[in-house]
Hints:
The protein is α/β, with parallel strands linked by helices. The chain has 14 helices and nine strands. Strands 2-1-3-5-7 form a five-stranded parallel β-sheet. A two-stranded parallel sheet has the order 4-6. Strands 8-9 form a two-stranded antiparallel ribbon. The longest helix has 36 residues, at 9-44.
Amino acid sequence: MNISIFFNEEFIMNMKKFCFFIFKILLLVFTLSVLIDYIYSTCYLQTRQRGKIGFIFNSEPQKFDVIILGSSRANNHLVSKMFTDKGLRTFNFGMQGSKLFESDLVLKLLLERKCIIKNVIIDVDVTLKSERKSEANCLKFLPYFHRSQVIKKHFEGLKDYNAFCYIPFYRYLKYDTKIGFREAFFCSINKKSHELDYGGYNALPSLNQKLKVENLNFNPKPNRYYEEIKEICKINRINLIAIMTPVCDNVKGIDYFKKVNKLYPEIHNYENVVIEDKYFSSCGHMNDNGAKMFTAKILKDFFKK
C-alpha cells in the first residue's frame, strides 16, 4: 500500500492547523499562568500584617536590638515585651515547627532587606537532630521567591526548585490551601493575623494536667544551617546568643542537652532553669508564667545595664 495516500496535502494542512491550535492553547495557558502568578504575588506585597515573612519583606529597613529565631521553643518562651520594657527594640521571629533551615533564611532575609541587628537569640536544641526543612514554614517564603535572591538561592537543591523557577503559578497551584487564593485575598485586603501580636511572642496557657513524657532519645548532629547563622553573625558583627530552653522533669533522654554542649560548647544550656510542672503547658513548652521567668533569666544574664 502506498503510504503517501495518507499524507496528502489536505492531511498535512489539517495537521498544521491542529498543531497551531494546540500551540495557541498552550500559549494562552502560559500567558494566563504568568498573569495570575503576577496578581497573586502582587497581593502578597500589599501587607505586612499577615505573617512574619510578609512583615520582613514589606517593611521599611528596621533597627533591632534583639531578634529571636527558632522553633516554638523560641516563639513560646521569649517574651518580646519584657525586652522592649528594658528599652531593647525586639521582635520574636520564632515559628511553630520551624527548623534551622528556616531560621537561617529569616536572618538572611532580614539582612537582605537592610535591617540592622545588634543581637540574635536563637533556640538551638531539638532542631539539631536533622537538617530537614519545615514544609509548612517553607511555604511562607514562596510568594516572594522571584523577588528575593536570598530566598531563591536558599531553596536551591529542593525537589521543586526548577518548577518554582520556570513554571509560573506552579507554587500557588500546588500549595493552594496554604498560599493560594484565600491567603492572597486576605493579603490584598490587608487583613491582620495574630502572628504579629505581642511582638511575635505566642503565650501558651496552663493546662493543669499531668504532663506527657517528652522523648529526647536521639543524638544531635552538626548542622550546616546553624554553622551558616554563626558565620553570618560573625561577618555582620552581630552578637549571637545560642540557647537551649527548659523542659519539664518528665523527660526521657535528658542527657541530650549534654550531647549538644559536647557538639557545640558555645550553646548556653537552660534546660533546668524552670522545671516545676505548673510553669509548663506541655513537657517541652512553658506556659506564659514559665516564659516570663525564663525571659527574666535571659535578660539578667545577657542584657544587664
